[in-house]
Here is the input.
Amino acid sequence: MKISKQARRDAKELFRSCRVNGLLDDAKVRQVVQRVIAGKPRGYLAILSHFERLVKLELDRRTARVESPAPLAGPQQAAIRANLARRYGEGLIFSFTQAPGLIGGLRVQVGSDVFDGSVQARLAGLESTL
Here is the structure.
């Protein structure tokens, strides 16, 4: 679906109104969607489509995925949370998962930033140089 410039502007304005102290407020997002659906302004489907895209991008940007070969203990998780919060700010959503294929080390992804200190990545790097 082609989205008009006006629909994009309206969606961006709605998106900005859902931010509180730089973070997205879930309650305001739900409220905005309900109001747009109830009011049905011109091009409301395009507005909601672009608004959904903006919300997804923001959630991806604020999600930290941490992969490790073994479960991390509480203090290790707390240290990772603190370091990432210091770097990216408060309001991150953390996801700790196990990936036995990593062999050792950690792989951390926050938005489009990837920090890969795993043995698997180092072996792949060595393989590509040979």
In short: The chain has a mean pLDDT of 90. The helical segments are 5-17, 26-39, 44-61, 74-88, 119-129.
